[in-house]
Amino acid sequence: MNVTVREARQSDIPAIADLFDQYRQFYEQPPNLSLAHAFIYERFAKQESVILVAERDGMDLVGFCQLYPTYCSVEAKPIYVLYDLFVLASARQSGAGRLLLKATETRAAADGKARMDLTTAKTNKAAQSLYESLGWVRDEVFYSYSIGVAS
């Protein structure tokens, strides 16, 4: 299997939406392809994120990642949050995830970002191993919190 990584094109949106729906299911969300499509389409149309795709043999997409631009107030510099990274089960161990992560580093450097941040499930040992093999460092100092906000 020959895997290459490139920036997403508008024509990729349906395939990315399918991958995004599977990604959400991996994190225990119910299937909802129309929601996935609307979300990906809006990020793409509004240029609110950078989406990179892993393509197998120049034909079908087997993975994607999504970077969101933001800032680190402490460093007073722009950063990316790598929020989504997903590779089809059938393409895992093909190097697609590694290629996507390396491409994000190249893109972040080209875009003048000081660093990238990501979070993953404590149980996602395969992803943690991949991140650490590429030099990502797990935060042992800060806790992460969140709160739902009623709309």
Condensed summary:
The chain has 151 residues and is of the alpha+beta class.
What does this structure look like?
This protein is α+β, with helices and mostly antiparallel strands and 151 residues long. It has a single domain (3-133), classed as Aminopeptidase (3-Layer(aba) Sandwich). The protein is 34% helix and 25% strand. It contains 4 helices and 5 strands, in the order βααβββαβα. The chain has helices at 13-26, 33-45, 96-110, 125-133, and strands at 3-7, 50-56, 60-72, 77-87, 116-117. Strands 1-2-3-4-5 form a 5-stranded mixed sheet. β3 and β4 (77-87) form a beta hairpin. α1 packs across α2. It starts with a strand and ends in an 18-residue tail after the last helix.
Please describe the topology of this protein.
Elements: E1 3-7, H1 13-26, H2 33-45, E2 50-56, E3 60-72, E4 77-87, H3 96-110, E5 116-117, H4 125-133
Could you name the CATH homologous superfamily?
Answer: Gcn5-related N-acetyltransferase (GNAT)
**Low-pLDDT residue spans:** none
Rg (C-alpha, Å)? 15 Å
Largest sheet, spatial ordering of strands: 1-2-3-4-5
| Gross morphology | globular
Strand content: 25-35%
SSE series = EHHEEEHEH
CATH overall fold name: Aminopeptidase
Average pLDDT reading = 95
Termini gap? 45 Å
CATH class: Alpha Beta
Which sheet architecture does the biggest sheet show?
5 strands, mixed
Helix percent reads 25-40%
Q: Architecture in CATH? A: 3-Layer(aba) Sandwich
Number of beta strands: 5
SSE class: alpha+beta
Could you say how many structural domains there are in total? 1
- Helix tally equals 4
